[in-house]
Specification:
Helices cover about 35% and strands about 25% of the residues. It is an alpha+beta fold. The protein folds into two domains: about 5-150, 2-Layer Sandwich (Fructose-1,6-Bisphosphatase, Chain A, domain 1), CATH 3.30.540; about 160-265, D-Maltodextrin-Binding Protein, domain 2.
């Protein structure tokens, strides 16, 4: 994996192939929805994308383990020793997929020493792809055109992106505190990992996630945010890390644009 640009390009291709598998199901009337043990939805598209990604990553990097949301349980005693692995959500936003609103993604991240260092977030419904790697830069590709993206510094107005369903009351409280102490707040909503990508692209300043997510939900977009000059931290402003606990749930976190030290200075007394 010495050529990181080539590796990133290969992962983009894999994510798009998985996206094509998802769209084949998406275009059918029957999405074949079932429920997992935790009552979250599962569709044939989740599994088709999962198998595509596992097969292609095994060909690309046969010595690197893949941890997918749809993998069978991997024992913590094995997983805790991983220094490098792929962390995958084959279809992030299954509820958005079922609603057919287009806001679902394919997420593939390379995690090294507990940090996401390379990531691809592909949006099958629009063909948009976010990609990036630490010390490489970040890009978005739409309609065949690729543009460099960069998180923006805090300005006169704070654009906050938030989940439509999760942690709404806590987010409203934080928004009110930001508005009274920092700057006027504009709100926007988005599904799945696209919320992190809006910060990476400089279209939003902050994404507070104050309700549960899993590591595979965030790792790919987290890598893009890092590559674009933003940061993802917990509510104590410590860097969000991966595979450090047996539980794969993330703590509450903040996705912040450029100049994170200014964010910490202004937000630390509001949380």
């Amino acid at each position: 994996m010495s050529d990181r640009q080539s590796l990133l390009a290969s992962v983009v291709g894999i994510a798009r192939e998985a996206g094509e598998a998802i769209l084949r199901i998406y275009e059918n009337e029957d999405l074949e929805v079932s429920n997992k043990e935790d009552d979250s939805p599962l569709t044939r598209a989740d599994m088709d994308a999962h198998h595509v990604i596992l097969e292609r990553l095994a060909e690309l990097t046969p010595d690197v383990t893949v941890h997918s949301e749809e993998s069978d349980g991997i024992d913590w005693q094995e997983r805790r020793h991983w220094q490098r692995f792929w962390l995958v959500d084959p279809l992030d936003g299954t509820k958005e997929f079922i609603k057919r609103n287009g806001e679902f993604t394919v997420n593939i991240a390379l995690v090294e020493h507990n940090r996401p260092t390379l990531g691809v977030v592909h949006v099958p419904a629009t063909g948009t792809t976010y990609m990036g790697g630490v010390d490489m830069g970040a890009w978005v590709e739409r309609d065949g055109e690729r543009q460099s993206i960069q998180a923006r510094p805090l300005g006169e107005t704070v654009v906050m992106v938030a989940s439509r369903r999760h942690g709404a009351e806590l987010v409203e409280t934080l928004a009110a505190r930001i508005e009274s102490s920092i700057a006027p707040v504009e709100r926007t909503s988005m599904g799945s990992s696209l919320k992190l990508c809006l910060v990476a692209e400089g279209k939003a300043d902050i994404y507070p996630r104050l309700s549960p997510t899993s590591e595979w939900d965030t790792a790919a977009a987290h890598a893009v945010v890092r590559a674009a000059g933003g940061t993802v931290v917990d509510t104590d402003f410590r860097e969000l890390l991966y595979n450090v606990e047996e539980d794969v749930l993330n703590p509450s976190f903040l996705v912040l644009g450029a100049e994170p030290e200014k964010w910490e200075e202004r937000l630390k007394d509001l949380l």
